[in-house]
Amino acid sequence: MTQDNTQSQFSAISRTIGEYGPGGMAVLETARDALLKSHAAGKAPLVELADLWAESLQEGRGLFDKPDRLWGVTPAAETLDMIGQTTVGPWQLTDWNIRDHYGPPYGVKKEWTTRELVQFCRGNPGIQALMISDYIQEAYALLGRRSPGGIQKYFWLEAWLKGDIGLGAWDEPVLVLPDETGKWEVTPEKMKRTGFYAKQIVLGHRGNPHGLLYWLWVAGDAEGIIRTLAAWRDARRWVWDEGGKKPVETAEPGGMAIAPEDVKFCDCHPKFRDMVRDLARKVLAGG
Questions:
Q1: Which of 164, 179, 193, 223 is 20 to 30 Å from the Cα of 15, by its Cα?
Q2: pLDDT in tens, 72-82
Q3: pTM for the model
């Protein structure tokens, strides 16, 4: 059934992504093939094609039109990574995550140099998609499928739980951007004023109005939209356990329910906007 769902989502999504060019289609096809392989092996049961596609738009949209760089390395100076990480491919997997966690099952050696690692990844786009499928599966299994924490884990969960990032308006940029003079200075205060990554993945933002809920709508998955809205409504507050170096769930309400007015970046698709606003009202009312 999971494989049938992947094929169904691919059919629906692929008909609507002309604006993302050949690079976008290559990413979607690679994600589809990887998920079919994972699901056939009984892996990544919580991950769907819409999850991989939504993350690729957030992380790698700027690479879609650069075929020579799409599956290769992006230095921290270009991504404006706040802690200087080097990333690879359209899902922007960090080199250390690939080397130490998600790459070894697919042939990555821990002793590789960054050059060797990047060369391997560039030649194996499908493995990049398999690794990100494993990453998202792990996050959803630990923190809740498509929940605030489950999605935020992709973007520095520890700092978010500590209140070091993501305390600005939810739709503000999630990165510290250069000022009007081009100077880039990352300070603790600027980091705190950044936006909420997980909510932007779900709802889209100014730079990308097509969030996860939009792609579930494209795929005809109203139930998936409702379950996601309910996950945000019912989410508990998590804290960071410094001693154990892990997130811990509390009994306190998370206070992160998605309101109808939050659905505001997809006016080009009024049917989607109106449907999700209506569903948000019903979910908030306990439906």
A1: 223
A2: 988 755 544 44
A3: 0.94
